[in-house]
Specification:
The structure holds 3 protein chains of 3 kinds. Chain A has 6 helices and no strands. By secondary structure, chain A is an all-alpha fold. The longest helix of chain A is centred in the C-terminal third of the chain and has 41 residues. Chain B has 2 domains: 41 residues; 38 residues, no CATH class. Chain B is flat and about 50 Å long. By secondary structure, chain C is mostly helical. Chain C has one domain: Cytochrome C Oxidase, Chain A, CATH 1.20.210. Chain C is built from 16 helices and no strands. The radius of gyration of chain C is 23 Å and the shape is globular. The chains are: A mainly alpha, B mainly alpha, C mainly alpha. Chains A and B meet through helix 1, helix 3 and helix 6 of A and helix 1, helix 2 and helix 3 of B.
Chain lengths: 241, 80, 547
């Protein structure tokens, strides 16, 4: 029969998590991390495309965009930013715990990360709700064209202005929506990792899934770090408090 | 560190300058990448891929703007 | 009595095909070779579906009037032909089939870095194909494979979202394959397999993977935006509501131009393998050929505006893109020069794969040169949206890519299946493909230059003769494709058994059995020589046929 590689007797010596097409755990870990970075590269381009389109429209319609940002609630945005950064911190601590083999610390930090992640989604939910109540959701509500922009800015053509603003709001919802979707997936991934941690899968020698999930989580945080100023902070002379 | 950056962001909310906001964002992102994501400790290859990703996004944006910026350089009907 | 003299049953050596049986062992496999076979079957099916639409197009174009079908239906024909061929045949073709099978073997690895993701990528492809087929069955899409807005986002009455979802999903299959290849090449090379010793097929697939990973997400988000715009009636790309349809084109072509390099680069990698083997000579200028793959990948991202010269993009941007498009021809030309130089003073034999390689070099050169005509702003204004463009891209995609795919399939068929295909039929089919192809597409250069527009079901009567020639050529081409399908299937059961290395080729994949064992090599190979170490051609003269 085909002897895959090496003697059968060596089989018992390596980690049960070593996949047989790899030579050793180090190669497997290296490959997994590089793989995740390459995947994040695709995510950069995915969000990048949206950022690109958003930037183009922002440059074309600066007035409309500036005025609509006044309708964003920066308090929610700032709160979300803080929440996410803290969750990144707890995630980094979780990965550190995994490297050190501290099971309890790992689980605690994973749970904390999930809590903050869910907090983010809840705050986002409040935000969307507020927009819905104010009739600012362009996708489902047909009263959009009735919204009066005359208070926001000087513009000769209110109908055009309204339409330009509508485009911004669409981008706001799409960009934050896709981001929130990634957050949701992230929370799902964390749940899986937590369950694996509870089963005692991870140790000093094998913590690859924690590491690469951490990378994903941090990336989603970074996307938000850029979304926040671009969507919330473009306006004239505005105060948070 | 987290609170420091958040505080700085709060102060700057008085400004309208997008550039400052983006600079802060870049700074925050660099912190996350180098420390939380441990890019500092990774191989040169990984750093290359990470940098490449951002560079490629800049390439996308930049080339879009080759068109949009130069549209006004010739007299033509204005986009509304 | 008779039992004593019975012949002992010959037990076939264990290999990846016979180590497990049953549909579960195929559908849940992690073996890159089995996944490659799954892909071969799937993309062949999609190829013939795309071919059916091509036949319908050519049938309609036999007569100048639009008499076979009405224009809406014709629009659906060329749209479905384009979508199926581009996204479900050309983009996955060589990487997912020959690349999946041979990239790990050529670097001496046991499998790709992420075998389960490899299988997932096939399932994702099937899901995407299901959506595309659903779009066809439900009634088709008529926007053109380019989905230009605002027609696709606002005004079309066809199943745009279904098709767009199919393409979106298939894009992830492409991304995952590319990701897998990149990590594999970086992390899983055998001892002694340095970057400078990698077969050029690996370099080509690596460069392709970079493009897949960097470009595909952008088309994903673009199609997602179109779908959202269509579903929710908002105006991101609709000029009536302040949107910019040119932005769609920028975003779409940001991917779709590099996409054509996804299609051709692996083909070029195959040609490097074929030319070296059948000239019994090491490739001329290995570093240049390797670097040119990367060069094409990178510069390919800087040229997409040449699809948009007449759309309303700024003239200065057009200048920028035109210049850079001239630049991207350079690495391709380097490859053609190097292949030719490889053949110089080589010991050339004319087996089927080499016939396809010759075809590739000639036809790709023609296609590439006509690309330069199109890159020239002034000429492009005249010939854009005519059959000149259609002929150009079919020369590179069919005359180039499909011929490379066929050449690669013939070259590696003995290794994959352990059987030899019938060489006589192989050469005959190659000839049919070459003749049929040229008869189909060369007249289109002429009609296009004379003004026949593309995507029209009717044309001016003076073009009829050339169009009839084109359709006749398409029939010959179709036969040229069907014959290999038949003899390949035939060879699985009745073809003579192939040895480990029927071509006497260099490369790690030829040092293991045909078909290979599940883990590719009995022992991890240790590489000591450069790629294509054929030595002096006169040492390695073989009888000009299969051993």
């Amino acid at each position: 029969m085909t002897e895959p590689h090496g003697a059968v007797a060596e089989h018992a010596e390596h980690s049960p998590y070593l996949r047989h097409h790899f030579d050793d755990m180090h190669q497997q870990f290296d490959a997994a991390t590089l793989g995740m970075w390459v995947f994040l590269l695709t995510e950069i381009m995915f969000f990048g495309g949206m950022f690109g389109a958003y930037t183009v429209y922002r440059s074309l319609y600066p007035g409309a965009f500036a005025s609509t940002s006044l309708h964003m609630n920066p308090a929610f945005g700032a709160a979300n930013t803080a929440v996410l950064i803290v969750s990144s911190l707890t995630m980094a601590l979780a990965v550190r715990s995994a490297r050190l083999g501290s099971q309890k610390a790992l689980q605690i930090f994973l749970v904390l990360t999930m809590v903050f992640g869910i907090a983010f989604l809840v705050i986002k939910g409040f935000e969307y709700h507020e927009h819905w109540v104010d009739n600012k959701v362009p996708l489902f509500q047909q009263e959009w064209h009735h919204w009066d922009y005359s208070n926001d800015a000087e513009h000769p053509n209110q109908a055009q202005f309204a339409k330009q603003a509508q485009i911004l709001f669409c981008f706001y919802f799409f960009m934050t929506g896709f981001h929130a979707l990634h957050m949701l997936v992230g929370v799902g991934i964390m749940t899986t990792i937590l369950l694996m941690a509870r089963r005692g899968v991870f140790s000093k020698d094998y913590f690859t899934p924690v590491e690469i999930s951490g990378l994903y989580w941090h990336f989603v945080d970074i996307v938000w770090i850029f979304l926040f100023p671009l969507l919330y902070l473009i306006g004239n002379a505005r105060k948070l408090i | 560190m987290t609170f420091a950056t958040y505080y700085i962001a709060q102060i700057d909310l008085g400004q309208w300058n997008i550039v400052i906001a983006l600079l802060i964002a870049f700074f925050k992102m660099s912190l996350v990448i180098f420390f939380f994501m441990n890019l500092k400790a990774e191989s040169a290859l990984t750093k290359l891929f990470a940098a490449g990703g951002f560079f490629w996004m800049i390439l996308l944006l930049g080339q879009f703007f080759v068109d949009y910026i130069s549209r006004d350089w010739m007299p033509r009907g204005r986009m509304w | 009595m008779s039992t004593a003299l019975e012949q002992p049953r010959v037990v076939e050596a264990p290999n990846y095909l016979n180590n497990e049986y049953g549909w579960k062992s195929w559908l849940l496999t992690k073996d890159h070779k089995r996944i490659a076979v799954l892909y071969i079957i799937s993309i062949t099916v999609m190829f013939f579906i795309g071919g059916i639409f091509a036949s319908l197009i050519r049938l309609e174009l036999l007569t100048p009037e639009g008499d076979l079908v009405n224009s809406d239906t014709y629009n659906k024909f060329f749209t479905m032909h384009g979508i199926v061929m581009v996204f479900f045949f050309l983009i996955p073709s060589i990487p997912a089939t020959l690349g999946n099978f041979f990239l790990p073997m050529q670097i001496g690895a046991k499998d790709l870095a992420f075998p389960r993701i490899n299988l997932l990528s096939w399932y994702i492809y099937i899901a995407g194909a299901a959506f595309a087929l659903a779009a066809i069955v439900l009634g088709g899409v008529d926007t053109g494979w380019t989905f230009y807005t605002p027609f696709s986002s606002t005004y079309s009455n066809t199943f745009v979202i279904t098709a767009a979802v199919g393409v979106f999903i298939a894009g992830f299959s492409s991304i995952l394959t590319g990701l897998n290849f990149i990590v594999t090449v970086h992390k899983m090379r055998a001892p002694g397999m340095t970057w400078g010793r990698l077969p050029l097929f690996v370099w080509a697939n690596y460069a392709t993977s970079l493009i897949q990973v960097l470009g595909t997400p952008v088309v994903a988000i673009t199609l997602a935006l179109v779908g959202l715009e269509r579903a929710f009636h908002i105006g991101i790309f609709d000029p009536a509501i302040g949107g910019d349809p040119i932005l769609f084109q920028h975003m779409f072509w940001f991917y779709s131009h590099p996409a054509v390099y996804i299609m051709i680069l692996p083909g070029m990698g195959v040609i490097s393998e074929l030319v070296t083997c059948f000239s019994r000579k090491s490739v001329f200028g290995y570093p240049f050929v390797a670097a040119s793959s990367l060069g094409i990948a990178i510069i390919g991202f800087l040229v997409w505006g040449h699809h948009m010269f007449v759309t309303g993009m700024s003239m200065y941007a057009s200048l920028y893109f035109s210049l850079l498009t001239m630049l991207v021809a350079v690495p391709s030309a380097i490859k053609v020069f190097n292949w030719t130089a490889t053949m110089f003073r080589g010991s050339i034999s004319y087996e089927t794969p080499m016939l396809y390689a010759f075809g590739f070099i000639g036809l790709f050169t023609i296609g590439g040169l006509t690309g330069l005509f199109l890159a020239t702003l002034g000429v492009d204004v005249h010939v854009t949206d005519t059959y000149f463009v259609v002929a150009h891209f079919h020369y590179v995609m069919v005359g180039g890519m499909v011929l490379a795919y066929m050449g690669g399939m013939h070259f590696w068929w003995p290794k994959m299946t352990g059987r030899l295909y019938p060489e006589g039929w192989g050469r005959f089919a190659a000839l049919l493909v070459f003749v049929g192809f040229n008869l189909t597409f060369f007249p289109q250069f002429i009609t296009g230059y004379l003004g026949q527009p593309r995507r029209y079901h009717a044309y001016a009567p003076e073009f009829q003769v050339l169009n009839v020639m084109s359709t006749a050529g398409a029939s010959v081409l179709a036969v040229g494709y069907i014959i290999p399908l038949i003899y390949f299937l035939w060879s699985l059961k009745y073809g003579p058994k192939a040895g480990n290395n029927p071509w006497g080729a260099k490369g790690l994949e030829w040092e293991t059995t045909s078909p290979p064992p599940t883990f590719n090599f009995e022992q991890t190979p240790i590489v000591t020589e450069d790629a294509y170490a054929y030595g002096s051609p006169h040492e390695n003269v073989h009888e000009g046929g299969l051993k």
